[in-house]
Fold this protein.
Amino acid sequence: MDAQSFDEMPISRRLFQLADDAEGDTVTLDWILAQLHERAFGLFLLVLALPCCIPFLYGIPQIVALPLMFVSAQILFGRTSPWLPARLGAREVTKSGLQSLAERARPWLERIEALSRPRLGALTHPPIDRVVGIALVLFSASILVPLPGTNTVPGFAVVIISMGLLQRDGILVLVGSMIGTVWIATLIFAGATLASLVKGWLGL
């Protein structure tokens, strides 16, 4: 499929097209990145973050969290297109996994697509998008926290932000940023409370 036709598809349909275009049983992250054409940042963030939204899923969120952080940092530093080092780019996902991901995500993505439209566009363009990059790095890092369910909320926040970047919808970017910020604040509060309890138990 040519790049123009792919870029004109609804986002929910682009995920199915990725799976349809995959040759063999597995594809690398580099291959996925090469297929995304226009607006590669938003789509790549979306593809990486969607598995993190699945509650109590272990392994895959931790695999994609590092590439997610790496790509988010590139938005922070002003790159115009994403890039992965060889080790991260060589990580593989299965074709069946892509198909399953597209099927699970479709109803939610279609709902977001129906609600979104271009607005507050400054939030999706330089230089303000660099602030969004900082938030994405923090949310991606929190996915690595080894606690039950910790991947779901930040993953959902990144998905909403990436949809905002793709749809040029600053409201979605704000909503995703607020969800992620509340999550980070909750983690900090929980960590501080736990540390205080431990000190009390140890008599420190």
